[in-house]
Amino acid sequence: MTRTYAVIGDPIDHSLSPALFNSAFLFLGLDCAYIAYRIPKGELAFGIDSLRKIGISGFNVTIPHKVEMMRYLNEVDTECKLVGATNTVVNNNGILKGYNTDVAGFMDPIKNRNIKSTGSDVLLLGAGGAARAIIVAFSKENVKKITIANRTKQTADELVRFAHSLGMDSDYSDLENAGRIAGNYKFVINATSIGLKGSGCPISTDKINKDSVIYDIVYMPVETPLIQQSKNQGATIIYGWEMLLAQAMKGFEIWFNRPAPYEAMKLTLLGRF
Ligand code: NAP
Protein backbone atom coordinates (compact mmCIF):
# COMPACT_ATOMS: atom_id res chain seq x y z
CA MET A 1 0.00 0.00 0.00
CA THR A 2 1.33 3.43 -0.89
CA ARG A 3 2.19 5.49 2.20
CA THR A 4 1.40 9.19 2.05
CA TYR A 5 3.31 12.07 3.65
CA ALA A 6 2.67 15.82 3.52
CA VAL A 7 3.82 19.29 4.46
CA ILE A 8 1.17 21.58 5.92
CA GLY A 9 1.34 25.36 6.06
CA ASP A 10 0.23 28.54 4.34
CA PRO A 11 1.59 29.62 1.90
CA ILE A 12 2.78 26.22 0.77
CA ASP A 13 2.97 26.24 -3.03
CA HIS A 14 6.67 27.20 -3.06
CA SER A 15 7.71 24.59 -0.48
CA LEU A 16 10.79 22.59 -1.46
CA SER A 17 9.75 19.64 0.74
CA PRO A 18 7.67 17.69 -1.84
CA ALA A 19 10.60 17.69 -4.31
CA LEU A 20 13.08 16.79 -1.55
CA PHE A 21 11.11 13.87 -0.13
CA ASN A 22 9.77 12.53 -3.43
CA SER A 23 13.34 12.39 -4.75
CA ALA A 24 14.35 10.40 -1.65
CA PHE A 25 11.43 7.99 -2.17
CA LEU A 26 12.29 7.55 -5.84
CA PHE A 27 15.99 7.07 -5.13
CA LEU A 28 15.29 4.35 -2.54
CA GLY A 29 12.39 2.78 -4.48
CA LEU A 30 9.93 3.41 -1.62
CA ASP A 31 6.23 3.14 -2.41
CA CYS A 32 5.48 6.53 -0.88
CA ALA A 33 4.16 9.91 -2.01
CA TYR A 34 4.61 13.38 -0.47
CA ILE A 35 2.16 16.22 -1.03
CA ALA A 36 1.87 19.90 -0.14
CA TYR A 37 -1.37 20.65 1.70
CA ARG A 38 -2.35 24.28 2.26
CA ILE A 39 -4.06 24.75 5.59
CA PRO A 40 -4.91 28.40 6.29
CA LYS A 41 -4.49 29.82 9.80
CA GLY A 42 -7.57 28.98 11.88
CA GLU A 43 -8.30 25.77 9.98
CA LEU A 44 -5.70 23.52 11.57
CA ALA A 45 -8.17 21.27 13.46
CA PHE A 46 -10.11 20.58 10.27
CA GLY A 47 -6.87 20.01 8.35
CA ILE A 48 -5.53 17.51 10.91
CA ASP A 49 -8.85 15.68 10.80
CA SER A 50 -8.54 15.37 7.01
CA LEU A 51 -4.97 14.05 7.31
CA ARG A 52 -6.12 11.42 9.79
CA LYS A 53 -8.96 10.42 7.42
CA ILE A 54 -6.58 9.75 4.53
CA GLY A 55 -4.36 7.72 6.87
CA ILE A 56 -1.36 10.03 6.54
CA SER A 57 1.83 8.28 7.70
CA GLY A 58 3.59 11.47 8.74
CA PHE A 59 3.80 15.16 7.95
CA ASN A 60 5.95 18.25 8.21
CA VAL A 61 4.63 21.45 9.71
CA THR A 62 5.62 24.93 8.63
CA ILE A 63 4.53 28.56 9.03
CA PRO A 64 2.03 29.41 10.57
CA HIS A 65 1.26 26.13 12.39
CA LYS A 66 4.50 25.05 14.11
CA VAL A 67 3.40 26.23 17.57
CA GLU A 68 -0.37 25.65 17.33
CA MET A 69 0.23 22.08 16.12
CA MET A 70 1.51 21.22 19.62
CA ARG A 71 -2.13 21.19 20.83
CA TYR A 72 -3.03 18.36 18.49
CA LEU A 73 -0.17 16.04 19.39
CA ASN A 74 -0.71 12.97 21.55
CA GLU A 75 3.00 12.66 22.29
CA VAL A 76 6.01 14.99 22.05
CA ASP A 77 9.71 14.22 22.12
CA THR A 78 12.00 16.11 24.50
CA GLU A 79 13.40 18.71 22.07
CA CYS A 80 9.98 19.41 20.62
CA LYS A 81 8.67 20.09 24.12
CA LEU A 82 11.60 22.37 24.97
CA VAL A 83 11.22 24.43 21.79
CA GLY A 84 7.42 24.49 22.09
CA ALA A 85 7.03 23.94 18.34
CA THR A 86 6.96 20.97 16.00
CA ASN A 87 8.02 20.56 12.39
CA THR A 88 7.78 16.77 12.02
CA VAL A 89 4.88 14.51 13.02
CA VAL A 90 4.54 10.73 12.96
CA ASN A 91 1.08 9.17 12.74
CA ASN A 92 1.21 5.84 14.50
CA ASN A 93 -2.30 4.36 14.13
CA GLY A 94 -3.91 7.67 15.06
CA ILE A 95 -1.38 8.58 17.76
CA LEU A 96 0.36 11.78 16.59
CA LYS A 97 3.90 12.23 17.92
CA GLY A 98 5.75 15.52 17.35
CA TYR A 99 9.43 16.18 16.87
CA ASN A 100 11.49 19.30 16.20
CA THR A 101 14.25 18.46 13.74
CA ASP A 102 15.38 22.12 13.47
CA VAL A 103 17.42 21.60 16.66
CA ALA A 104 19.63 18.78 15.37
CA GLY A 105 19.34 20.04 11.77
CA PHE A 106 20.82 23.38 12.79
CA MET A 107 23.80 21.83 14.58
CA ASP A 108 24.67 19.28 11.90
CA PRO A 109 26.57 21.62 9.51
CA ILE A 110 28.65 22.94 12.44
CA LYS A 111 29.53 19.40 13.53
CA ASN A 112 30.23 18.29 9.94
CA ARG A 113 32.94 20.98 9.78
CA ASN A 114 34.37 19.89 13.15
CA ILE A 115 33.82 23.38 14.50
CA LYS A 116 33.78 23.34 18.29
CA SER A 117 30.98 25.30 19.96
CA THR A 118 31.40 24.22 23.58
CA GLY A 119 32.53 27.18 25.69
CA SER A 120 32.17 29.71 22.86
CA ASP A 121 30.19 32.94 22.52
CA VAL A 122 27.25 33.20 20.15
CA LEU A 123 25.60 36.28 18.66
CA LEU A 124 22.12 35.22 17.60
CA LEU A 125 20.22 37.62 15.35
CA GLY A 126 16.44 37.12 15.58
CA ALA A 127 14.03 35.94 18.25
CA GLY A 128 11.39 33.96 16.37
CA GLY A 129 10.65 30.24 16.23
CA ALA A 130 13.91 29.28 14.54
CA ALA A 131 15.94 31.30 17.09
CA ARG A 132 14.29 29.32 19.88
CA ALA A 133 15.31 25.99 18.30
CA ILE A 134 18.86 27.36 17.87
CA ILE A 135 19.05 28.26 21.58
CA VAL A 136 18.06 24.70 22.49
CA ALA A 137 20.69 23.37 20.05
CA PHE A 138 23.47 25.52 21.55
CA SER A 139 22.40 24.73 25.12
CA LYS A 140 23.04 21.05 24.37
CA GLU A 141 26.59 21.99 23.33
CA ASN A 142 27.25 23.97 26.52
CA VAL A 143 28.12 27.24 24.82
CA LYS A 144 29.34 29.94 27.23
CA LYS A 145 27.16 32.88 26.29
CA ILE A 146 24.42 33.73 23.82
CA THR A 147 23.58 37.33 22.97
CA ILE A 148 20.22 37.81 21.32
CA ALA A 149 19.87 40.76 18.95
CA ASN A 150 16.43 41.54 17.62
CA ARG A 151 14.30 44.37 16.23
CA THR A 152 11.69 43.87 18.97
CA LYS A 153 13.32 43.91 22.41
CA GLN A 154 10.38 42.29 24.15
CA THR A 155 10.58 39.04 22.16
CA ALA A 156 14.36 38.96 22.56
CA ASP A 157 14.00 39.40 26.34
CA GLU A 158 11.74 36.34 26.42
CA LEU A 159 14.46 34.33 24.69
CA VAL A 160 17.13 35.69 27.04
CA ARG A 161 15.03 34.31 29.92
CA PHE A 162 14.58 31.06 27.98
CA ALA A 163 18.36 30.75 27.54
CA HIS A 164 18.85 31.43 31.28
CA SER A 165 16.35 28.66 32.06
CA LEU A 166 18.54 26.29 30.03
CA GLY A 167 21.58 27.28 32.09
CA MET A 168 23.25 29.67 29.64
CA ASP A 169 24.64 33.14 30.16
CA SER A 170 22.56 35.42 27.91
CA ASP A 171 21.89 39.09 27.21
CA TYR A 172 20.20 41.42 24.72
CA SER A 173 21.54 43.77 22.06
CA ASP A 174 19.81 45.84 19.41
CA LEU A 175 20.71 45.08 15.80
CA GLU A 176 22.74 48.26 15.32
CA ASN A 177 24.95 47.53 18.32
CA ALA A 178 25.21 43.88 17.22
CA GLY A 179 27.26 44.98 14.22
CA ARG A 180 29.68 46.83 16.52
CA ILE A 181 30.18 43.82 18.85
CA ALA A 182 30.09 41.04 16.19
CA GLY A 183 33.89 40.67 16.22
CA ASN A 184 33.79 39.50 19.87
CA TYR A 185 31.82 36.36 19.02
CA LYS A 186 32.94 33.09 17.49
CA PHE A 187 29.48 32.46 16.00
CA VAL A 188 27.17 34.98 14.35
CA ILE A 189 23.87 33.37 13.41
CA ASN A 190 21.19 35.05 11.33
CA ALA A 191 17.75 33.75 12.30
CA THR A 192 15.85 36.87 11.24
CA SER A 193 14.12 36.87 7.88
CA ILE A 194 16.37 39.72 6.70
CA GLY A 195 18.25 38.59 3.61
CA LEU A 196 15.31 36.60 2.31
CA LYS A 197 15.10 37.21 -1.43
CA GLY A 198 18.12 39.50 -1.15
CA SER A 199 16.37 41.90 1.25
CA GLY A 200 19.46 43.44 2.87
CA CYS A 201 21.85 42.58 5.67
CA PRO A 202 20.73 42.33 9.35
CA ILE A 203 23.92 43.91 10.77
CA SER A 204 27.00 45.81 9.70
CA THR A 205 29.72 43.27 8.81
CA ASP A 206 32.71 45.61 9.38
CA LYS A 207 33.82 43.79 12.54
CA ILE A 208 33.45 40.27 11.13
CA ASN A 209 36.84 38.66 10.60
CA LYS A 210 38.60 35.43 9.66
CA ASP A 211 37.92 33.92 13.10
CA SER A 212 34.15 34.45 12.77
CA VAL A 213 31.76 31.65 11.83
CA ILE A 214 28.81 33.17 9.97
CA TYR A 215 25.78 30.95 9.72
CA ASP A 216 22.82 32.42 7.82
CA ILE A 217 19.78 30.15 8.11
CA VAL A 218 18.01 32.14 5.37
CA TYR A 219 18.41 29.87 2.33
CA MET A 220 16.85 31.93 -0.46
CA PRO A 221 19.04 33.17 -2.08
CA VAL A 222 21.93 30.80 -1.31
CA GLU A 223 24.33 33.76 -1.11
CA THR A 224 22.55 36.28 1.11
CA PRO A 225 24.03 39.78 1.52
CA LEU A 226 25.29 38.73 5.00
CA ILE A 227 27.11 35.76 3.49
CA GLN A 228 28.54 37.76 0.59
CA GLN A 229 29.88 40.52 2.83
CA SER A 230 31.21 38.12 5.49
CA LYS A 231 33.05 36.12 2.83
CA ASN A 232 34.83 39.31 1.86
CA GLN A 233 35.93 39.67 5.50
CA GLY A 234 37.45 36.14 5.39
CA ALA A 235 34.89 34.46 7.70
CA THR A 236 33.93 30.77 7.70
CA ILE A 237 30.50 30.48 6.07
CA ILE A 238 27.65 28.05 6.78
CA TYR A 239 24.70 28.16 4.39
CA GLY A 240 20.98 28.05 5.19
CA TRP A 241 20.41 25.25 2.69
CA GLU A 242 22.63 23.00 4.79
CA MET A 243 20.23 23.31 7.75
CA LEU A 244 17.21 22.90 5.48
CA LEU A 245 18.64 19.67 4.11
CA ALA A 246 19.77 18.37 7.51
CA GLN A 247 16.42 18.96 9.22
CA ALA A 248 14.60 17.24 6.32
CA MET A 249 16.98 14.27 6.52
CA LYS A 250 16.33 13.98 10.27
CA GLY A 251 12.59 13.90 9.51
CA PHE A 252 13.10 11.15 6.95
CA GLU A 253 15.10 9.14 9.48
CA ILE A 254 12.36 9.49 12.11
CA TRP A 255 9.73 8.26 9.64
CA PHE A 256 11.70 5.41 8.08
CA ASN A 257 14.26 4.46 10.72
CA ARG A 258 17.00 4.32 8.08
CA PRO A 259 19.55 6.81 6.73
CA ALA A 260 18.22 9.44 4.32
CA PRO A 261 19.82 9.53 0.84
CA TYR A 262 22.01 12.63 1.26
CA GLU A 263 23.28 13.00 -2.32
CA ALA A 264 19.86 12.55 -3.96
CA MET A 265 18.24 15.05 -1.61
CA LYS A 266 21.09 17.56 -1.89
CA LEU A 267 21.05 17.44 -5.70
CA THR A 268 17.30 17.98 -5.74
CA LEU A 269 17.50 20.86 -3.29
CA LEU A 270 20.35 22.70 -4.98
CA GLY A 271 18.70 22.15 -8.36
CA ARG A 272 15.71 24.16 -7.11
CA PHE A 273 17.71 27.31 -6.30
P1 NAP B 1 9.63 34.12 12.72
O1 NAP B 1 9.26 33.31 13.92
O2 NAP B 1 8.56 34.82 11.96
O3 NAP B 1 10.74 35.21 13.18
C1 NAP B 1 11.19 36.19 12.31
C2 NAP B 1 12.37 36.95 12.92
O4 NAP B 1 12.85 37.88 11.93
C3 NAP B 1 12.01 37.77 14.15
O5 NAP B 1 13.12 37.84 15.00
C4 NAP B 1 11.72 39.15 13.53
O6 NAP B 1 11.93 40.23 14.43
C5 NAP B 1 12.77 39.21 12.45
N1 NAP B 1 12.43 40.12 11.36
C6 NAP B 1 11.52 39.91 10.38
N2 NAP B 1 11.49 40.98 9.54
C7 NAP B 1 12.39 41.87 10.02
C8 NAP B 1 12.82 43.16 9.60
N3 NAP B 1 12.32 43.74 8.49
N4 NAP B 1 13.76 43.79 10.32
C9 NAP B 1 14.29 43.22 11.44
N5 NAP B 1 13.93 41.99 11.88
C10 NAP B 1 12.98 41.33 11.18
O7 NAP B 1 10.40 33.23 11.64
P2 NAP B 1 11.30 31.93 11.88
O8 NAP B 1 10.48 30.71 11.68
O9 NAP B 1 12.05 32.11 13.15
O10 NAP B 1 12.28 32.01 10.60
C11 NAP B 1 13.24 33.03 10.48
C12 NAP B 1 14.00 32.87 9.13
O11 NAP B 1 14.71 31.64 9.17
C13 NAP B 1 13.08 32.78 7.92
O12 NAP B 1 13.68 33.48 6.86
C14 NAP B 1 13.03 31.29 7.59
O13 NAP B 1 12.86 31.05 6.21
C15 NAP B 1 14.42 30.84 8.03
N6 NAP B 1 14.45 29.43 8.44
C16 NAP B 1 15.34 28.62 7.82
C17 NAP B 1 15.40 27.29 8.19
C18 NAP B 1 16.38 26.38 7.51
O14 NAP B 1 16.20 25.15 7.58
N7 NAP B 1 17.40 26.90 6.86
C19 NAP B 1 14.58 26.79 9.22
C20 NAP B 1 13.69 27.66 9.86
C21 NAP B 1 13.64 29.00 9.45
P3 NAP B 1 10.73 40.82 15.36
O15 NAP B 1 10.69 39.96 16.58
O16 NAP B 1 11.14 42.19 15.61
O17 NAP B 1 9.47 40.72 14.53
Cα-atom Rg, whole angstroms? Answer: 19 Å
Low-confidence stretches: none
CATH topology group of the largest domain: Rossmann fold
Task: Using the alpha-carbon principal axes, give the shape.
Answer: globular
Q: How would a crystallographer describe the biggest sheet?
A: 6 strands, mixed
Give the mean pLDDT: 97
SS field, number of helical segments:
10
Fraction of residues in helices?
25-40%
Strand order in space, largest sheet: 2-1-3-5-6-4
CATH architectural label of the largest domain? 3-Layer(aba) Sandwich
* Helix/strand class: alpha/beta
Tally the structural domains: 2
The N- to C-terminal Cα distance equals 33 Å
Q: Are any ligands bound, and if so which? A: NADP nicotinamide-adenine-dinucleotide phosphate
Feature tags:
12 strands; globular; Rossmann fold; alpha/beta; binds NADP nicotinamide-adenine-dinucleotide phosphate; 273 residues; 21% strand; 6-stranded mixed beta sheet; 2 domains
Characterise the protein shown here.
The protein is of the alpha/beta class. The chain folds into two domains: 3-100 and 243-272, Rossmann fold; 103-238, Rossmann fold, CATH 3.40.50.720. 39% of the residues lie in helices and 21% in strands. The chain is built from ten helices and twelve strands. It has helices spanning 17-28, 44-53, 78-83, 102-112, 129-140, 153-165, 175-181, 225-232, 240-256, 262-272; strands spanning 3-9, 32-38, 58-61, 75-76, 88-92, 95-99, 121-125, 145-149, 169-173, 187-190, 213-216, 236-238. The strands form two sheets. A six-stranded mixed beta sheet has the order 2-1-3-5-6-4. Helix 8 (225-232) links the parallel strand 11 and strand 12. The protein is globular, with a radius of gyration of 19 Å. It binds NADP nicotinamide-adenine-dinucleotide phosphate (NAP). NADP nicotinamide-adenine-dinucleotide phosphate (NAP) binds at residues 102, 126-131, 150-152, 155, 191-194, 196, 217-219, 240, 243-244, 247.
